[in-house]
Specification:
CATH architecture of the largest domain in chain A: 3-Layer(aba) Sandwich
CATH architecture of the largest domain in chain B: 3-Layer(aba) Sandwich
Number of helices of chain B: 23
Structural class of chain A: alpha/beta
Distance between the termini of chain B: 48 Å
CATH superfamily of the largest domain in chain B: NAD(P)-binding Rossmann-like Domain
Strand content of chain B: 5-15%
Mean pLDDT of chain B: 95
Number of domains of chain A: 2
Largest interface: A-B, 41 and 38 residues
Number of helices of chain A: 21
Helix content of chain A: 40-55%
Shape of chain A: globular
Oligomer: heterodimer
Radius of gyration of chain B: 23 Å
């Protein structure tokens, strides 16, 4: 497909002549002011926040162009500057692909090459919002506080006028605004961390306190740090993507973004004022509290992912879409989700059944190539929030728990299989010798009883837990080569039939 | 009268009402004043156990001594007050106070309440009472959340009840709405105002009430706000008497020991205290005649009481509940709990308690421990655990701020907060469901469950913890360690290790 097309370079003056299937900005980009500084122009940012902003600009808003800032790497700047900071986002789904050119990035700066330009932009009166996708490490957050031993933070405190870290830039820019008598900007983390606004606020205040108490107080009194919940799978762009892009659309884009159809954005309503820009206009949910959404996500999405990762991989699958389309595994995940749902309170503005349907759709998409081993990794850090707390809830409210307990049993089995040919991707579990303990426990519940530090004394003492766990472990041990036989429910669920075949780039193997 | 009376036979049991008062007078103390002749000079919102065991008792004592027009018209404010209001009406607004100590039970019948109305059923009746020129004082016990303030203790204009009252001034939901409406009527009709007396456990309850009420008035009528500032006084008060929820066991005890059949008696401890500022623009009862301390400045008393009594109540409630206790006296009989309360007060709280004229803090704390342990009162752990978000903000957070500033101990207060966080996760150590009652319950429990051993989500609630505690790495570290221990070892083993260290 697409072999006959000549390839066209993506650029601002060519927008009108692009392939007819590509949506392009209808707004006049030259009229858009820069009102947002975004640090960390990752693929996720370009497939998520920048798309929401593009939607806003399509709605006629003019003040919210983005200045994207890479702290160190010049890769994004170099790729985008030849194409007027435009790039394509392709949403892939079983219903077909949808390509659109995103015009919301006005410019890209590389902080390392010119810190002052970044600070000037952040301190500009036009800048109302600073957003971040810098991953967990960009917060320098260790055991609940700013890690003052980190080299970046130490360096920034010594030379605050030429920062290198996210925190250093934010605090310096706020200091400039305070000194100039300008109102502050809102700082909004778009990283996938529960309570991201709180974490950001904590590190910014801790750092600012080292600069001056007055600055810290000013920030504490005036700056909003709304928490957000973000969700969209945006895989790394590969050379196959770029090639497929040229083949399907005849478009040469140095860095297109291939993502799923689904996207979600929940933003905490600022306490002292209104959220700007008005993200609610373009489908974001603005809520009094993001926590109920986080709870829903950590159980229904992240919990399901971990269970599918473990069970699917032990059943011999490699990718999520393979495992979730295996009828018995799908049946188990369906039942597990039902048990999780019974532990949740209603989430305002969300239809839980529809949310669950999107999870199945997303997992079933062959385009995202979600690696099961990745979904199952770092279980020690995850098991409490994904399975153990839902279990405490389920047992105490006397709702179903057998599939949740099976998830814990499958984790024990997963640990047992750790070895040179089966990397569980969980350094902490190895440190704690959990695979050995799980093997020693055999089909008894001793793993749980002897590791109250992980499982908690309540579950260790619960007959429902220990009886269920031992029953599932026995079933697993009886037929270790076929874990599917041990699933609590043997009710297969088949994938609902879907409509048309996708066009555009076929699934690629990274 | 003493409980040593012989058990009453069923035939001998008398209902509490005006007709039976004379017969009852041979069994217990009854009102001696002419309840029909005296007028109500006070309207009280909202009538619950505490008002009836405290202010109404002082008023009743005074009326027995000096009959005057200071009776009380009561208002039931909440939808579910219907049954209690009916119970009071069915017995001519008379009721029995059962004061219990370790040694003895005493009962007496209080007659200070003249009438009672249920606001949600008949808002006009409330306004009618408040319009009477006989009324000189409006007193309030509406709990912390009844003041509808935000994290800065300013009026929370976004509060749903506040919004309702602004739109429905003739049928409000909050005591604030009724007060504003009544004062507007008085202003418009050139009548004198009344004094507004808060009897809730808030630091500077008079100041807060004034600030909130005038802010509320300003939203609809700036002239009214000014008129209130010029005409209404708001005395500060410190109130104290432990008053558990009335149970059937209490009704049964009254029948058996005193031959009294009371549909809604009140049970309380024998201790009672009221410290009051003399700021009543339109006169007041001579409360000093019946033991109320009238002082120039209530603040130190209030701080002492809220931090040591209410703070300890919150601190002990969550850990006790997790350790399996449901009654305060039984929890206090466990040396782990009473030892914790003492350490909490001594190490983490006392340093931030002001010097109070005439009070030895060591004696005061000894008395508190004895009062908590009073087996006759049988206070409910769950009563103390209610509305944690409101109580902790006033009773524990200011002490932690003080300790952080001065480098004092935060260990026991942090353990108390970890107990609360663990409690909010919704199931106890036997995996039984915990009934969490709090205006923020949904938000709190979602935050407690996202990542149970990590306190960040809850600590982030600045409305409760304020900017200092919310972002303190020291507090965060202490709570995280305590939470880990509570999940790993349980409450009792955790308390043991804290007390040993």
């Amino acid at each position: 497909m697409g072999q006959g097309l000549s390839t066209q370079q993506l650029s601002g003056d060519q927008l009108h002549s692009l392939h007819q299937d590509i949506q392009v900005p209808a707004y006049d980009r030259s009229q858009i002011k820069t009102g947002i500084v975004h640090i960390g122009p990752s693929a996720f940012f370009r497939g998520h926040l920048a798309v929401y902003i593009d939607d806003l600009l399509e709605q006629g808003e003019k003040d919210w162009g983005i200045c994207a800032v890479s702290l160190k790497s010049s890769g994004v700047r170099d790729a985008l500057q030849a194409q007027d900071n435009l790039y394509t986002v392709v949403e892939q789904s079983n219903q077909g692909n949808r390509a659109r050119v995103i015009g919301s990035i006005n410019k890209v700066l590389v902080a390392k090459e010119g810190p002052q330009a970044v600070l000037d932009q952040m301190a500009s009166p036009d800048t109302k919002l600073v957003t971040l996708t810098v991953t967990q490490s960009g917060y320098y957050y260790k055991n609940g506080e700013l890690d003052f031993d980190d080299d970046d933070i130490k360096a920034d405190l010594l030379r605050a006028d030429e920062p290198t870290s996210t925190v250093g830039y934010i605090v310096k820019a706020l200091e400039m605004r305070m000194e100039r008598g300008l109102p502050p900007f809102t700082v909004m983390s778009c990283d996938n961390l529960p309570g991201n606004g709180t974490i950001l606020r904590n590190v910014v205040l801790a750092y600012a306190g080292k600069r001056s108490e007055a600055l810290k107080d000013w920030i504490s009194d005036n700056v909003e740090f709304p928490s957000t919940m973000v969700d969209r799978i945006v895989p790394k762009t590969t050379s196959e993507h770029i090639q497929a892009h040229a083949d399907s659309y005849g478009l040469s884009d140095a860095w297109p973004i291939y993502t799923e159809k689904f996207r979600q954005f929940v933003i905490e309503k600022p306490k002292n004022g209104t959220l700007v820009p008005d993200f609610a206009r373009v489908g974001a949910l603005v809520a009094d509290d993001v926590a109920p959404f986080e709870l829903m996500k950590i159980r229904l999405l992240n919990g399901t992912h971990m269970a599918l990762g473990m069970v699917g991989r032990m059943a011999g699958h490699a990718y999520a879409h393979e495992a979730i389309t295996a009828p018995k595994i799908r049946g188990y995940i369906t039942d597990l989700m039902s048990e999780m749902t019974a532990t949740l309170h209603p989430v305002p503005g969300v239809n839980l059944d529809a949310y669950k349907d999107t999870i199945f759709d997303r997992l079933g998409s062959p385009f995202m190539k979600d690696d099961l081993a990745r979904l199952a990794r770092n279980g020690v850090d995850k098991v409490d929030s994904r399975f153990l707390q839902p279990l405490r809830d389920a047992i105490s409210r006397k709702s179903g728990s057998t599939n949740l307990i099976f998830a814990v049993a499958s984790w024990a089995e997963y640990l047992k299989r750790s070895g040179p040919n089966f990397d569980i991707l969980d350094a902490k579990a190895l440190d704690k010798n959990l695979p050995d303990e799980a093997r020693k426990g055999g089909d008894s519940c001793s793993l749980i009883v002897e590791n109250k530090g992980i499982f908690g004394q309540e579950l260790a003492a619960s007959p429902i837990m220990s009886e269920g766990f031992e029953r599932h472990m026995k079933a697993i041990c009886q037929n270790p080569t076929d874990i599917v036989q041990a699933l609590p429910s043997q009710q297969p669920v088949s994938v609902p039939a879907t409509g048309k075949k996708p066009r555009g780039p076929a699934p690629t193997n990274p | 009268m003493s409980a040593s009376n012989a058990k009453q036979s069923a035939a001998n049991v008398l209902k509490v009402n005006t007709a039976n008062l004379e017969a009852l007078s041979s069994r217990v103390v009854v009102p001696t004043y002419d309840r029909d002749a005296l007028k109500a000079g006070i309207v009280h919102m909202s009538v619950g156990g505490f008002h009836r065991s405290h202010q109404a008792v002082y008023t009743d004592n005074l009326l027995n001594l000096q009959p005057d027009n200071w009776m009380i018209d009561g208002v039931g404010l909440l939808d579910n007050d219907t049954a209690n209001v009916k119970a009071m009406q069915s017995q001519d607004c008379l009721y029995t106070v059962l004061a219990r100590s370790k040694e003895d039970d005493t009962a007496h019948i209080v007659g200070a309440m003249k009438d009672i109305v249920h606001a949600p059923s008949d808002p006009a009746a409330v306004f009618k009472k408040l319009a009477s020129e006989d009324v000189k004082i409006l007193s309030l016990t509406v709990t912390e959340k009844g003041y509808c303030y935000d994290k800065n203790r300013d009026l929370d204009e976004a509060n749903a009840a506040v919004q309702h009252d602004l739109k429905n001034p003739d049928a409000p939901k909050t005591a604030l709405g009724y007060t504003i409406g009544a004062l507007r009527h008085r202003m418009n009709n050139k009548l004198p105002a009344f004094t507004v007396m808060s009897c809730d456990n808030l630091p500077g309850n008079g100041h807060i009430t004034k600030h909130i009420l005038t802010s509320f008035a300003r939203l609809s009528d700036p002239a009214l706000a000014t008129w209130i500032e010029d005409n209404v006084s708001f005395p500060n008060a410190m109130v104290d008497r432990i008053t558990p929820v009335t149970t059937d066991a209490v009704r049964q005890a009254l029948v058996e020991k005193f031959g009294i059949d009371d549909a809604w008696p009140v049970v309380c401890e024998d201790y009672i205290q009221w410290v009051l500022e003399d700021d009543f623009r339109y006169g007041r009862p001579a409360f000093e005649e019946v033991g109320v301390q009238i002082v120039k400045d209530v603040e130190p008393y209030e701080k002492m009481k809220v931090r040591l009594l209410n703070g300890s109540h919150s601190a002990l409630s969550y850990l006790s509940y997790l350790a399996g206790y449901r009654d305060v006296d039984l929890a206090m009989a466990d040396p782990l709990i009473s030892g914790f309360v003492r350490s909490y007060m001594d190490h983490d709280i006392t340093a931030s308690v002001p010097n109070v004229p005439g009070i030895n803090l060591t004696d005061y704390k000894d008395t508190l421990i004895r009062r908590f342990a009073n087996p006759a009162v049988r206070d409910q752990i769950l009563r103390l655990a209610e509305d944690g978000s409101q109580k902790i903000k006033n009773a524990i957070v200011p002490c932690l701020e003080h300790q952080l500033k001065t480098g004092g101990s935060i260990k026991f207060a942090s353990l108390a907060l970890a107990g609360w966080f663990r409690f909010l996760s919704g199931s106890d150590e036997k995996l039984e469901a915990i009934p969490v009652k709090d205006p923020l319950a949904e938000q709190l429990s979602a935050r407690a469950k996202i990542d149970p051993r990590n306190p960040d989500q809850l600590l982030a609630m600045q409305d409760i913890f304020g900017p200092v505690v919310s972002t303190s790495p020291e507090v965060r570290k202490e709570i995280a360690a305590a939470l880990d221990s509570l999940y790993t070892k349980g409450a009792k083993a955790t308390l043991e290790s804290y007390l040993k260290a």
